[in-house]
Amino acid sequence: MPVELGVWRVDHGLQAVLHQPMANEKKLEDLIEANIAVVAPHLMVIGRQVQTSYGKYVDLLAIDRAGNLAIIELKRDMTPRDVVAQVLDYGSWVIGLQSDQIASIWGNYVEKYRPSDKGMSLDQAFCKRFGLKEMLDELNTEHELIIVASALDDSTERIVEYLAGYHGININAVFFRMFKDGDREYLTRAWLRDPTEDASDSPDAPANSHWNGEYYVSYAGENREWHEAQKYGFIAGGGGTWYSNTLQMLSPGNRVWVNIPGTGYVGVGEVTGLRVPVDDFTFDENGYTKKITDTDAVIATRTKYAESPENAEYLVPVKWIETVPVANAIKEKGFFGNQNTVARPTSPKWVHTVARLKERFQID
Q1: Residue 279 — φ and ψ, nearest 5°?
Q2: Residue 40: strand, helix, or coil
């Protein structure tokens, strides 16, 4: 069923905060474009009102740290059938975009909507936003579709769930409502489907979807050095619950394949413990247990749980089976990439990726 949101004040007894219909969805588009984190903190806006090759306009176009594009389309006054058909149509156009076209879209966006960033290339903006040292070689290998609505109806929910659960399409809907309390306005948000959850984790996943039992891990970001992960035996994520929550999917005995976006796969290992904050992560050295925060590791400078549980860096201990230095990272065209720190992919691309990595790492 569609999510129904209510807001109450509790400081002077229970008082309902009134729902205020949004005057127009352009205001919502303005809010999202100004701070994309209200929709998805893993994205960066690269285009607004982007004209397709057949004359239609995509409301917002974004990119994630794996180089994949996201179409964000407002429902406006369209019927459920029309809005879903439109976002699928946009997806069929976006999947064909090449790197030079994406860079051109960014250039147009900066010129029209972000003059303060004039002269900043897509490469520079991307690396700054995601804490990477260089732009990815391959962009737009996959894409996601996001429908934004100020009201979510049964029909839209059924269609989105059907496309995602039974056809494996990366589509979701996010529902916003405005509330007014005196001279203050509040915006609430609810997702139809958990945006950090891979389709294979859904109880509604199609019976013929197949997960090969191998976990994907993305290891990237500022102050995360791969040689430290090798030395101390961990994978990590933080800077927000979007990046750290998926680490909770891992349990001792799980096997993980680690990818550095834009660089390649650098290791495969077996999880030996559960997620812990960086404050509490320990490792063995010459028979002694030590805390990583007592070392000079760069990872130890990340946000601590004591400072901010939500933004803290979290680590999962791993016993490495095989690793390579960053300079020898394994990268091939067609390899799987994902914005989530941890994922359980079911796509054929993941099956292919793991098979090739087993050959390259020479393991069973």
Answers
A1: -60, -35
A2: coil
The rounded distance, in Å, linking the Cα atoms of 270 and 313 is: 20
Instruction: List, for residues 62-94, the tens digit of each pLDDT value.
Output: 998 888 899 999 887 677 678 899 999 999 999
Domain ranges of the chain: 7-195, 214-361
Rounded to whole angstroms, how far apart are CA atoms 177 and 148? 11
Do 143 and 170 form a contact (C-beta atoms < 8 A)? yes
pLDDT digits (tens, 9 = 90+) for 159-193: 888 888 777 788 999 888 888 888 888 888 888 88
Q: Which amino acid is at 128?
A: K
Q: Which CATH architecture has domain 7-195?
A: 3-Layer(aba) Sandwich (3.40)
- Rg of the chain taking only CA atoms, in angstroms: 22
Q: Output the six-digit token pair for 352.
A: 């292919």
d(CA 271, CA 254): 5
SS3 content of the chain, % helix, strand, coil (to 5): 30, 30, 40
Q: Which helix (H) or strand (E) holds 89?
A: helix 80-94
CA atoms in the 13 A half-sphere facing the CB of 59? 24
Burial code of 26-49, b = ≥16 C-beta within 10 A, e = fewer? Answer: eebbebbbeebeebbebbbbbbbe
Amino acid occupying residue 220: A
Q: Which helix (H) or strand (E) holds 260?
A: strand 255-260
d(CA 314, CA 276): 5
pTM of the model: 0.74
214-361 CATH, one of 1.20.1260, 3.10.590, 1.20.120, 3.40.462:
3.10.590
Q: Which residue has the tokens 């069923």?
A: 1
Q: What angle do CA 330, 335, 338 make, to 5 degrees?
A: 105
CA distance 338 to 197: 12
